[in-house]
Write a structure and sequence with these properties.
150 residues, mainly alpha, 0% strand
Length: 150
């Protein structure tokens, strides 16, 4: 049996981190509709949002997954983010910024395994300013961090 709220939370966080596209969310929604004789209206709405702004999809996904926290799905989403980061290293800066947003939303308290999500955005900023480290080094650390979730 599918855990639809958890799947919706997964796509919510993956979209927020830029690990999936609007098209990926629409495809997921279409697959759920295809398996159901009476799909929830939220899936019909998502399936019609192929040209919508990602924040509009996030709103619908949030309503579908209100009882599933970000932390519950973040490890799985980071595994997906790792694959995107390997394919496109430029994604690292955006991922770091989004992870910092999650860190702040969690009140700076996350499980030990995720504690580094608050570090990468600052590390990129310091490296870009030439204050400490290099962008390549931060990129390597981000790859190493996300790899543990694959």
């Amino acid at each position: 049996m599918r855990d639809i709220p958890k799947e919706a939370a997964y796509y919510r966080e993956a979209l927020r981190l830029g690990a999936v596209s609007v098209e990926d969310v629409v495809s997921w929604s279409d697959s759920v509709i295809a398996e159901s004789s009476m799909p929830d209206i939220a899936f019909i709405e998502l399936s019609s949002m192929g040209k919508a702004h990602p924040l509009d999809l996030l709103h619908v996904l949030q309503s579908m997954s209100e009882n599933v926290s970000t932390i519950e799905v973040l490890a799985e989403v980071l595994g997906l983010a790792h694959a995107k980061l390997v394919a496109d290293p430029r994604y690292g800066r955006a991922l770091a910024r989004a992870l910092y947003g999650i860190y702040v939303e969690c009140g700076y308290e996350v499980p030990e395994q995720l504690r580094d999500i608050g570090w990468f955005d600052d590390a990129f900023a310091l490296a870009e300013q030439g204050t400490y480290g290099t962008v390549d080094r931060v990129q390597e650390e981000l790859l190493r961090f996300t790899k543990q979730f694959v």
